[in-house]
Amino acid sequence: GHGVALGHGVGLGHGAVLGHGAVLGHGVGLGHGVAVAHPVAIAHAPLVHHAPVVAHHAVGGYAQPDLAEVSPYSYTYAVADDYSNSNFNAAETGDGNGNAEGSYSVALPDGRTQHVNYKADGYAGYVADVTYDGAAVYPDAPAPYHAAPVPAYAG
Length: 155
Description:
Number of helices: 0
Helix content: under 10%
Oligomer: single chain
Number of strands: 10
Strand order of the largest sheet: 6-7-8-9-10
Structural class: mainly beta
Order of helices and strands: EEEEEEEEEE
Largest sheet: 5 strands, antiparallel
Strand content: 25-35%
Radius of gyration: 31 Å
Distance between the termini: 76 Å
């Protein structure tokens, strides 16, 4: 029903929230056989409908594609934004059998550019070669903090 709480004792981890704000739960005895119940504030939960289960069958001689087939891929992208000083790029290719290789570069906050070339497979895992261009530049450290002197009051 709408906003109806059903259960015994305290529902901990066994309750299920169903549509229309109905809460169903199992009681939990706490302590030496003492069942503890607390009042529960009920609010109308939003109406939620789950997507229907649809069975896909061959239609007109067409069968669903086998998603386990080998699917090689390749992608590349790059961003260069002067306003935010964002500058990075990446490229990767995969043979569809779990083997991939690629590279990416990114401008670091210290002024260097990091380049990563990598290969990944089921045998060696992820293996990367990382290099840097440029020299790290750090801003001058701020002056040390000195507290203001304590005022002396005449008195």
